Amino acid sequence: MEEKGKYFPELNEPQWWLDLAFFTDVVQYLLTLNKSLQGKETLISDLAQIVFSFQNKLKLFTKDLQTKTFAYLKCLKKISESFPNILVETEKYMNKISGLAEEINRRFYDLRSLNTGVSSLKPSFSFLENPFAVDVVSDGCPISSPITKDTAAVELVLLELQEDEGLKGLKLSGVSTIEFWKNVPEEKYPQTKMCAMKLISIFGTTYVCESLYSILKFIKSKYRSELTDEHLSELVRTALSNYQPDFTKLTEKNEHSKKHFS
């Protein structure tokens, strides 16, 4: 194929199109994964679930390549059907999927460890999402180091919490994970409350930090270069805060102040 005096022989090779199709399919899934891991108010347990599901999807893709069904690799299927006389060699594609799986396992090894003796955070996520579904007697303490070092105390308090009908009803009502743990009394269940607070405070993504730099660049532009550090700090906090002020109440308070001083 020629275009403006240039010749691209690979465009006439079916194998080049098959490789491109496979690459396109994989990149699309990776883009979806990347987008899913962004956003505000996402807990580490939510992000871990997305990673775990993607790891399982890679196993499914490998099986799909073995059977040459291409049910999940739409672009590869379309191109392979365009070249019915070409045998699709899927072994190298399976090696690529295997390499990708190994890299993801390496990056997220502390979420769900595949090595014996290395602490995994996955049981802690089950505890965070629903402490009433944890079988302490059979499975032991779901929380490990460094979240807690006193697992015995956590087990005892967790068993007490699981018998709290008020908290159990609150969880069944469908409140968010954060709202549920806000309502767990710290004086009654100190160990479990502290473990939940530590898990909730884990930064699972750099999205908020990246948003900060974008907002900072927008606020302190060349047209507002004379902003003081104090005002800049206040504007950034306002932009990043999820707090919604009650303007009606503020207006009423302002009117009341005017009448008081008039």
UniProtKB/TrEMBL annotation:
<dbReference type="InterPro" id="IPR012337">
    <property type="entry name" value="RNaseH-like_sf"/>
</dbReference>
<feature type="domain" description="HAT C-terminal dimerisation">
    <location>
        <begin position="175"/>
        <end position="236"/>
    </location>
</feature>
<protein>
    <submittedName>
        <fullName>General transcription factor II-I repeat domain-containing protein 2-like</fullName>
    </submittedName>
</protein>
<dbReference type="Pfam" id="PF05699">
    <property type="entry name" value="Dimer_Tnp_hAT"/>
</dbReference>
<dbReference type="GO" id="GO:0046983">
    <property type="term" value="F:protein dimerization activity"/>
</dbReference>
<dbReference type="InterPro" id="IPR008906">
    <property type="entry name" value="HATC_C_dom"/>
</dbReference>
